Amino acid sequence: MTTLAAAYAAARQQTKFHAKSFYFSSFALPAVKRQRAYAVYALCRLIDDRIDEAPQGDDLKRAVASLRSLVDRLYAGELTPDDLDVYPWLPAVKETIRECEIPRAYIDDLIAGVELDQGAVRLRTWAELDRYCYLVAGVVGLIMTRIFELKDRQYEKQAIELGNAMQLTNILRDIAEDLERNRIYLPQEELSGYGMSEADLHLGQVTPAWEEFMAFQIERAREYYRDSETGIAHLEADGSQRAVWVMRDVYAGILDEIERKNYNVFRTRCFVSFPRKCGLVLRRLLLK
User: Quick one: what percent of the chain has pLDDT higher than 90?
Assistant: First the structure.
């Protein structure tokens, strides 16, 4: 039988290995909130991996049905021995869901969002991309408000905006990688508005049109980051605010790196170096 302490330790290892920026940002959280954040990450990672690894058709349907069945058991508190053998961190998720009162609808939305990643991805409009960002990231922001104990629910909108900003940042960073997987999240209408097409993306050339397009997208993401800030200020001053500020700064820093590379996301993956992350942390410590 997996002990609760061992379950949280397993969730921590999942986060440390797969989500380095998130793990780095979590240092400021109180211990209980930190371990619950790791538990939620482990579940999000499972949902992403289980659906991402499933082929199309019946296999995908079975993977989704299996996930929903697992979520049923989590919310009913009826995990099986097989569940625990495969995913020893599940008791940590079960306790986190119960103690933080995480609505089942949030998890269902996340599963629906990850399903959209299957097969060839093409999004026609900004509205479609915005909806996708909510399902795979904005809703995670809502989950985190429960873990961070946001008292005033009117600021949930800002949590969604921060999640959407981070997902937009990921999309801009990962354009080349997504192209290899036949996934284009950039709205086709907006590409066309800048005189570009899918064929131009595959050429991977930094043209004046591409620079203008990327500058527009980066400013959109930054506007989401700015809009999220009023919500951060209403988190508990027990380290929750500082942790979210650091996470916000690290992810927003990816946009700076894209600009430094002259928007060339086709040849290199932009990331915030560890020394710069430390500098961002120091800045927040001095500011707060």
Answer: 83
Q: What's the predicted TM-score (pTM) here?
A: 0.92
In SS3 terms, the chain reads as CCCHHHHHHHHHHHHHHHCHHHHHHHHHCCHHHHHHHHHHHHHHHHHHHHHHCCCCCHHHHHHHHHHHHHHHHHHHCCCCHHHHHHCCCHHHHHHHHHHHCCCHHHHHHHHHHHHCCCCCEECCCHHHHHHHHHHHHHHHHHHHHHHCCCCCHHHHHHHHHHHHHHHHHHHHHCHHHHHHCCEECCCHHHHHHCCCCHHHHHHCCCCHHHHHHHHHHHHHHHHHHHHHHHHHCCCCCCCHHHHHHHHHHHHHHHHHHHHHCCCCCCCCCCCCCHHHHHHHHHHHHHHC
Q: Which one is predicted more confidently, 274 or 66?
A: 66
